[in-house]
Design brief:
By secondary structure, this protein is mainly alpha-helical. Among the domains are: 33 residues; 62 residues, Ribosomal Protein L30, Chain: A. It contains 8 helices and 5 strands; from the N terminus they run ααβαβαβββαααα. A 3-stranded antiparallel beta sheet has the order 2-1-3, with no helix packed on it. It has a two-stranded antiparallel sheet with strand order 4-5. A hairpin with a 5-residue loop joins β4 and β5. The radius of gyration is 44 Å and the shape is extended. GO terms for molecular function: structural constituent of ribosome. It holds the Pfam family Ribosomal_L30.
């Protein structure tokens, strides 16, 4: 009798196992199908993306314009180079230090300009240390200096411009119209001047100082008025007063014999 009951119970459990197995198989098939369709969608999108060449049209048009248009103008090389060192020399190999020494940049300060000729020998040395230096072509916006005295009023900027601030000669000063230097123009201000003045006040922490009067508190008789404040007398009096003040009387705690 017991064997019959056990066989019936086993028969009842078999459908549950079959249902669980089918559900697992369907779930696995669903995941694989989802991955398959996602991969197929990605491949279709990739084909469309590769077939679209609209992004390259401006480049092709520019290439055609260069081929059919006039040749670009030749840039005249600068006769001089303004070279400055932008990296420290510590830890640099010895051959790079020798190149810097030949260029005169080994013992100079950083960002200090040094002028060199634009020759093949100098360019070879600069190519060895191109990661340590900054090379800027020297330009002459005011033209080449005509007189040796122009070098006294010349300045080489960090961008390579050689600017000459020429002083006016007497004949040129007489030709200038005096109406440009009237009283109204004398007191006129522009935006750059105002910004420079405001920046100067901000750096000196003097904004609105005309509205606040400074009140100095001297302790070492800097202004020579010892009768107003005597630091030594004040400190001595303060110490004497502190010594004279009696200490608070001790209050006995309850439960203890005094």
């Amino acid at each position: 009798m017991a064997g019959i009951v056990l066989n019936k119970l086993k028969d009842l459990q078999r459908p549950c196992l079959v249902v669980r197995t089918c559900a697992t198989v369907l779930q696995m098939r669903h995941k694989s199908a989802r991955k398959f369709f996602r991969a197929r969608e990605y491949q279709n999108w990739k084909k469309k993306r590769d077939a679209d060449k609209t992004w390259a049209e401006p480049l092709l048009e520019y290439q055609k314009m260069l081929e059919n248009g006039p040749p670009p103008p030749e840039i005249e090389p600068a006769p001089l180079h303004a070279v400055s060192r932008i990296r420290p020399v510590k830890g640099v190999p010895w051959w790079e230090k020798q190149a810097l020494e030949r260029l005169g940049l080994l013992n100079t300060k950083m960002n200090e300009l040094t002028v060199h000729k634009n020759t093949p020998g100098i360019n070879v040395e600069l190519r060895k240390v191109n990661h340590l230096v900054k090379v800027v072509p020297v330009r002459f916006p005011h033209g080449l200096p005509e007189d040796p005295s122009d070098f006294d009023h010349a300045k080489l900027k960090s961008n390579g411009e050689f600017v000459v601030n020429k002083s006016l000669k007497p004949q040129q000063a007489a030709e200038i119209n005096n109406d440009e230097y009237n009283e109204r123009r004398k007191w006129s201000l522009d935006g750059d001047t105002i910004r420079k003045e405001m920046r100067r006040k901000l750096e000196r922490k003097a904004m609105h100082d005309e509205y606040y009067v400074a009140q100095y508190s001297y302790h070492y008789n800097q202004d020579g008025k010892e009768e107003k404040y005597d630091r030594w007398t004040k400190t001595v009096k303060g110490k004497e007063e502190k010594k004279k003040t009696p200490l608070p009387s001790a209050v006995p705690r309850p439960g203890f014999n005094t």
